[in-house]
Amino acid sequence: MPVPWETIAQKAQEHRDATISLVEPGLPEITDLPLDSSPVPKAILTPEELAITESDPVDLVSSLASGTLSSVNATNAFLRRAALAQKLVNCITELLPNAALERAKYLDDYLKKHGKPIGPLHGLPISVKEHVKMKGRTVNAGFIAWYDRVADRNAHILDIFLAAGAVLYVRTTQPQTLMHLETSSNFYGQTVNPFNRNLTSGGSSGGEGALVGMRGSCLGIGTDIGGSIRSPAANCGVYGLRPTSYRLPIEGLSATMLGQEQIVPVIGPITTSLGGVKLFMKTLIDAKPWIREPSLVPFPWRTEPQVPANGGGIKKLKIAILWDDGVVKPHPPITRALKTVAEKLKGVEGITLVNWEPYKHDYAWTIISSLYFCDGGSEEATAIEGSGEPWRPLSRFILTDNPNVKKLGIRDVWDWTLKRDDFRAEYSQLWGDVDVILCPVGPGPAPLHDTARYWGYTSQWNLLDYPALIVPITKVDPEVDVAEKNYKPRNEKDRYNYEFYEPEKFANAPVSLQLVGRRYDDEKLIEVMEYIQKSIGLPFTNFV
Amino acid sequence: MPVPWETIAQKAQEHRDATISLVEPGLPEITDLPLDSSPVPKAILTPEELAITESDPVDLVSSLASGTLSSVNATNAFLRRAALAQKLVNCITELLPNAALERAKYLDDYLKKHGKPIGPLHGLPISVKEHVKMKGRTVNAGFIAWYDRVADRNAHILDIFLAAGAVLYVRTTQPQTLMHLETSSNFYGQTVNPFNRNLTSGGSSGGEGALVGMRGSCLGIGTDIGGSIRSPAANCGVYGLRPTSYRLPIEGLSATMLGQEQIVPVIGPITTSLGGVKLFMKTLIDAKPWIREPSLVPFPWRTEPQVPANGGGIKKLKIAILWDDGVVKPHPPITRALKTVAEKLKGVEGITLVNWEPYKHDYAWTIISSLYFCDGGSEEATAIEGSGEPWRPLSRFILTDNPNVKKLGIRDVWDWTLKRDDFRAEYSQLWGDVDVILCPVGPGPAPLHDTARYWGYTSQWNLLDYPALIVPITKVDPEVDVAEKNYKPRNEKDRYNYEFYEPEKFANAPVSLQLVGRRYDDEKLIEVMEYIQKSIGLPFTNFV
């Protein structure tokens, strides 16, 4: 007789809770969950733990390499903060305190013995989205039926990070199917937003987003095929990068549709600083991942400037602003963030601003959502129904209620691929001498639960395979970000998005923006954002 | 009533002949076709024409840029030699004398007026395989049913070459379906080998191979998805490169299965020198083709050395030799060429030779030939049968007699793609510190007509997406290259190949070798080959 899905879910939760309970010193139960979880750690953790967990990962690797901070101390601080984050926002599938502390101890001993770090991430605790295979552990991709799948080896990225000296100490939640811009599963329910529990943390790397937003991690591994790194990074007020495809290793993900290459999933960082983004990228690319994974392009991470500066350090930059994709109009706080940044950029010498005219973003969605599930979604349906677990609302939305999901023939796939390529070529021509595009990450701040239905602001760049960087800007202020009255929605999607915006419901939610570059301009994107941050000061609000 | 296919074929031939007849001064008919066509031009063309057409393309662009040679003179010389090649080896679909001479005149005038060339290929005549779209002209991919398809714009590569100053003067033959390692179609029959008309020129870029072999072109555009650049280059004693995918533009090819990306076709050069290979690659990549065609990787053509040398110019190189792929044993002249080169390389300081153990090359063929036609070959069948033309024997061989051709479902394609990736990863691990692999281009010299059934020595590198460079080495000498007696074939393919080798039949055929690199090591490959050429002197025989 098959095991009821509820039994498996309960087992998963019990396992998670057992791992959390191993943390020392133990943490109090939070009986009255606050709307805004972000201040809670300050009341519970030690000053040293707060200092460690709120440090920039670049500073942490520096302290760890010099031995001024031990990996055991760093790891334990992150273990405790992560455990606390779990109690507050429900972002963890399992904590790995024993293995992590043992590893941290090994690294501390190594440093003492050899007088030098083992690699560029020596001693740094790193968080990992569940479906990234970790040897000997379940990898279920959010499907109850897959709970007994156990990884027989590490994903490629984990081996590189381990060789670089990382400590793996926590695995994070993901939604059923991995194809939501939220994080809700029948294993663990919903992962909620650190700043407002009525809102989603985003997804599908929403466990990472919430954990990093809570500073229970400073550097985590996410994956993105339609916005899954960027939506949680943006919703939780942290940094995230969806790199260009074929730069970072993706071998060793547990997911449906493996072998599909029309729309390539990518791995990328969710982290607390731009330095964290760079550290993640450079560590992986310097490890020459193309030897084990030959689909990757063997080109180095470029450290030389991608935008030349004059003698005074002034860069000549043309930044295009996409205010609105022409399909779904962003909520007022998003537009305010764009306006404020644009105003400040106008005062920066060397920067030229232009408007980016959206080009067929609705058609782009038709293409990408036709290519996502060219088997008609049958793998997802099988994986869901295998255990008898119910369909989560957003699984229904993207799979069964999505008019673009069809069982395609081989020629159909080729035709959509050609349309994709034509669209990419047309879009490429729009750039002219524009360096980067600044735009929303979604049609609003973190959505209410089960309402994240519009992917266009992120999936657009997956279709085009452009790198896209998320940076936190400000927070929703209901007094300023009032709803637009008498707005006439353009279409059903626009109406849906417009109608659920009531400023009070989104109070305190992070507002982030997205910087987009041409294919393989990953380095340039980070460099430009560093320059913008330095020039105008970002974010405008504190998130810890 | 549909037009009989024979009528269309006749029309195509008449058109071709009409364009050939425009050449001035006109050429004599060759009534008694010789076995070896290669010496014929010396008896018919002027000394100036011979000097021009037998020049290295690098020297030609230099003379053209300085004005010491006019483009009109160069173009007319190549027009005449190409016309003659057509009469001898049947390699042309149409000559473009009027347009080419008008263009050459324009370029000569431009140089006079501006005192500088228009681009890096100023005035250089370039030949083009038929299925590369040329605006306003038929592009039929070898299918009679497609003869009325007319290109509405140039293929991307032609626009780049035109902007660089090239003169397009001739279009060359290809086989029915483009999926033969020979060049036989119902339009024009067989393109034959310049050195022995009983042998094939190779294919599918066999028109290019034969034309360049005859020196009716010094630089031509071929395409390769299983050996289609390398087989003709090798069979005709010239140079060819199958570059890594996504480096050169491929937008604008007329072919079946467009949109298929599991095995990516590439464009590459067929040319009379290594300098020609480099000129082709650098010109295209310097033009930043990734703007119009965003699937290409935006990485420059590297001009800095890829293999460091010591102060005395000695390079430390590890070269692995693949003597035999373990599936089909190469004919004696191939093994002799490898042995001779290996012997000489042993004497070169800094070079280490090792043997390359073949790894599942038979399985590699299963994977690639399963992925070639995942629609079960239905597009090819439709295209052939649309006109009523008969199936050519090698179309039958690769499509209907091939046990790996099946109508696959979406999941099947994904599974084969995963197998492809696993195989690529396994093969990548074999390299260690090997720099390049030296190996046969096929299981013998140019095959007898309709017998080129073994693709493994070239398709292996398509599956792995490795760059592969063809260099001419020597010619078959029936007195030396005697057949092996009492050989016991390993399998049916091996038996087939073994049994048709009778040295006398292959007399005078070019023997070439293939140098293979890791993915994206295109520059390194050329650099290593230049170094080998300089070190041991290649080819060992003259081909003109």
From TrEMBL, chains A, B:
It catalyses: a monocarboxylic acid amide + H2O = a monocarboxylate + NH4(+). The active site is at residues 129, 204, 228. The keyword Nucleus does not apply. Substrate binds at residues 178, 204, 225-228. It comes from the Eukaryota. InterPro entries: Amidase_CS, Amidase_dom, AS_sf. One of its GO terms (molecular function) is amidase activity. Residues 74-525 form the Amidase domain. The keyword Hydrolase applies. Transmembrane segments: none annotated. Keywords: Hydrolase. It holds the Pfam family Amidase. Its EC number is 3.5.1.4. Belongs to the amidase family. This is amidase. It comes from Lojkania enalia.
